[in-house]
Amino acid sequence: MPLGVVLRRLPGVTRWASYSWKAVAVLPGAGSADWQELRREGEAVEYHAATLPLELHGAETEAYLHSLSAAEPAIYVVMRECSGDQPLEVVLVTASPYEAQDYTDSGEEIVEKVPMPAGLMAWVQGFVTDFHQDEAFIKRKRDKKRTDLTQDGVGDPRIATAADIYASPARQRRRVH
User: Fold this and answer.
1) Closest Cα to residue 6, out of 30, 23, 31?
2) Alpha-carbon span 153 to 158, nearest angstrom
3) Where are the alpha helices (DSSP H) in 26-117?
4) pTM score, two decimals?
5) How does residue 173 score in pLDDT terms, banded at 50, 70 and 90?
6) Residue 83's pLDDT is what?
7) Which is more confidently placed, 161 or 94?
8) Which distant-in-sequence residues (6+ apart) come within 8 Å of 121 by Cβ?
9) How far is Cα 72 from Cα 86, in angstroms, rounded to an integer?
10) What 3-state class would DSSP assign to 97?
């Protein structure tokens, strides 16, 4: 589904930053855009910065469920600072909080959480309903074989003499006494 990203530019609060930018909304089904001005209120300006496809994958339905069950379901917008006419490049939109977290690890991308509109929430929920499969938890069983009953290296054909077996100083003290 094509998803438009709305960015808001506000005047900077420090002398080192002229403006501050924030992703404030997404527009489901939006047409293509390249920094089209949407609204201007005083010094605050909102732009339809870009339209990117929101892709959902069947293997990530658990992540979508996590996002939908949050107090405020969200879409995550991944951006990069760039030099040129526009200060930010919108790289990705995703409904997966796990994928968004992966992008925060490098520190090069800016990841912002935007409220998910109700129609988009229903669309994601429909996808999850169609494709989610619970994975049964299978507890790993321990080996019942006791490994502490044999002495290290004894019976190993690669070890020629008992002196070739490494023993920590604590173990050697126990042997002497």
Assistant:
1) 23
2) 9
3) 61-68, 97-104
4) 0.74
5) low
6) 83
7) 94
8) 68, 73
9) 30
10) helix
